[in-house]
Amino acid sequence: MVKEREDFLVIGKDLPKVEAEAKARGECKFAGDISLPDMLHGKILRSPHAHAIVKRIDTSKAKRLPGVKAVITHKDVPQQLVWRTYFFTPSASVRDNYILEKEVRYVGDRVAAVAATSPEIAEEALGLIEVEYELLPAVFDPIQAMQPDATLVHRMIKRGDDEIKMKNNILAPVNWVIGDVEEGFKQADLVVENEYKTISVHNAQMERTTVTCQPLPGGRLEVWVPTQNIHGTRIDLAKSLGIPNNKVKVHRLFCGGTFGVRSQASFIEAICGFLALQTRRPVRIELSREEMFLNGGRHPMVMRLKTGVRKDGTFTALDIHWIDDTGAYSATAESMLSLASGFLLSMYRCPNMRVDGYTVYTNTPPRTAMRGVGNPQQNFAIEQQMDIIAEKLDVDPLELRLKNHVREGDRFYGQGPDIVCVVQSSGTEQLIKEGAKLIGWEHRKAVTPYKNQPWIKRGIGMARGFHTSSAASVKPSDFCLDYSGAAVRVNENGTANLITPCADSGTGNLSAHAAMVAEVLGLRYEDVTVTEADTDFTHFDSGTHASRGVYAQGLAVFAASTNAKKIILDWAARILEVPADHLEARDRRIYAKTDPSIEIGIEEVLRIGHLQDWGTPIASASVRAPACPPHFTVIFVEVDVDTMTGEVKLVRAIGGADVGTVINPQAVRGQTIGGLHMGMGFALTEASIIDPVDGHVVNPNFRDYKLLTPLDMPKVETILADTYEPTGPFGAKGVGEGATNPVASAVANAIYNAIGARIYSLPMTPEKILEAIRNKQESAGNKRG
User: What is the CATH number of domain 483-624?
Assistant: First the structure.
């Protein structure tokens, strides 16, 4: 295994991203850079109410405004629920919104849209639209929304084409039982039960969402949009507009951050497409930063976790009750709790486990997938629970984890009950042991690091986690698609083009794929060009989500490259008069395995083949991933807690990742550090705040939404485990989401280590920390009294 890695010429080297130079020169095209001749600009009129019926809407004044080319309301658009779920099978897709709404369900919901010759005219036109609303009761809290007398957010939705009449606000109950949970608790020597809460944090991608749609001859529609799935966008947009799939052409663009929110359609693609088809002119809609906060964000959850454990540290039972707030509309909620539940059940070995959960509609902005889709929430609960259990048993938290973690040979639930595989590679033990040594775990008792500031306490904490490297299962899932395609063309000058629909939001997926092509074909990294792509000439791909870019999409790239290599070796066999299976390609040469002196340059082979009319060496592959192997992560953090102000400062962090064979080390390190930053915000400062009176977003901008800056980052060291995933391309797995999942719980455990008081809800603000310290002091005083 190690020898194979050392033998690579491209894989495992620090490589610049394929788009690095274009980005540096400002030449890299993002959705916001698209500008077309005769283009119109769209704007959306949004509801000021959290729940209401549009009784009357008058657009006559807006239509008369010079420069206005179209004004549409719910009366003008197709009267069918739209499709927004890219990677679910149709029968599992939740459909609950129209292009424009007659019944609005949150502050900011879509009431009307305008297309005009300038953004300013479109904005002015919105002010001329007169709307009369009939106000309805609204519910903003998921627990209240579950009450029998709660107002219904939806009276009817569809799952696929099946109509469902809603009797309450519960969208998706999840109930799993493994073993005998009650018997498991009877066998326990210790039972620990706690409630944990997480709040909605926003994806906060830097690139604002911009959609441009251009009508083409023959009733076609060309689309530029930041998306993690161009083929899913094509299918959903076609279905929503009532046109054939082949009539929609979607371009792959680089994205300025996605973090899950663009793994599904937002609400403006269909609006923009409809306006373009109606006006017969290109239409562009660009959301403001405030509008960006009206869609997206991690699902807030309430988790009641109960665990049973023997004195020796083995688990006997695990029971969790979830409440998940999906907001006013849902595209992923059908799977959200299934994912979160599968992740929880895959953390630690336990023979008896039960999940009881409910995804609930509220009159708040719709939440989406966000880096980890349920995994950071469950991790915040289980990894604090592990430290609590360890303290009660008087054992080292590391030893408790090493004893119980899921490992090679264990069953793993990747994305729900029917997405299952067996773990074949795990670097958890290596990461825990190396991380503990680096952070100084044996000396982790709370200390006072500054003699002149004795009120500042330092603590060390850790947590472990994982995420899947695709949404694939040994047996194909009934609700989630997971297959990928790619093509590789080798040119007559000894270079290659990779043709792939794979999205890249800055993580380096396309760079990893280019490295794979080069390694397989025996070329240099710089010899491979990633071709611009769209849905007209690329294979179908299930999208860049579930950290599947390097693993699942990489399998398609590897297969296509291997198929192209066979063509080149066949040509070389003709020239060298050596059987093709006796030849190998390496370092831009093809040589005989038994006699390396028999060789020829790859460029020479291709030149001869070109002049001899042997054809074009191009090959493709469409591949279903065989598994969803977890990439394991471990986070150690060292924090300073100011007991006078409640302020928390991270001073040091160790980020460990088990990604199998490392394709591009600097990309993995970047993901590990970026995941730490996002997890720190989840832990300490970020919250998308909803006004409890009228339901509007209080902080819809980067001034009031408290993202951490580079100055808030601690010193970070990274560890990469020495593992090999036998099902992956070159033995590789993913890393993107796993880097974030355990961070918040590691910070929570470090805070407890510093002050001896535990925080059970996010974000862990100074106010919560000071309250926890006061409660601890009062409790100690009562005991002494």
Answer: 3.30.365.10
